[in-house]
Specification:
By secondary structure, the chain is of the alpha/beta class. It has 2 helices and 8 strands, in the order E-H-E-E-E-E-H-E-E-E. The longest helix is centred in the first third of the chain and has 12 residues.
């Protein structure tokens, strides 16, 4: 049996706006867009992707899934994402080597520090 990881689904109030935000933040390409869905990938033929799907109910609790990113330069990437509209978020993480941020709809993600050798 073989499984291929196709995508991560992100429920969104405005899939096109949030999907475009992430496409620009990650430098990914749009592979599908409709009124209720917006899919991006690293390249048209590369998986997995992120698929933003309309959900018209408000978020009720903290998300149980978030993405972690490991840049070459954490400080520069955090500054770039803040300039792009991300916000730093305090979720009680204390003093850590990663920075917790949120996208325009409040979905949290982490920008990790350098990988230990």
């Amino acid at each position: 049996m073989t499984l291929e990881w196709e995508q991560v689904i992100v429920h969104s109030a405005d899939p096109a706006a949030l999907g475009q935000w992430w496409a620009e933040a990650l430098g990914w390409v749009v592979v599908y867009s409709s009124d209720d869905e917006f899919e991006i990938r690293p390249a048209p033929d590369r998986l997995p992707g992120l698929d933003f799907v309309r959900l018209d109910e408000p978020r009720k609790a903290k998300s149980r899934l978030h993405l972690d990113f490991r840049p070459d330069d954490q400080a520069a990437e955090v500054a770039r994402l803040e300039a792009h509209g991300a916000k730093r978020v305090d979720i009680g993480q204390g003093d850590q080597s990663w920075v917790v941020m949120s996208d325009p709809e409040g979905n949290e993600f982490c920008v990790l520090g350098r990988r230990s050798q």
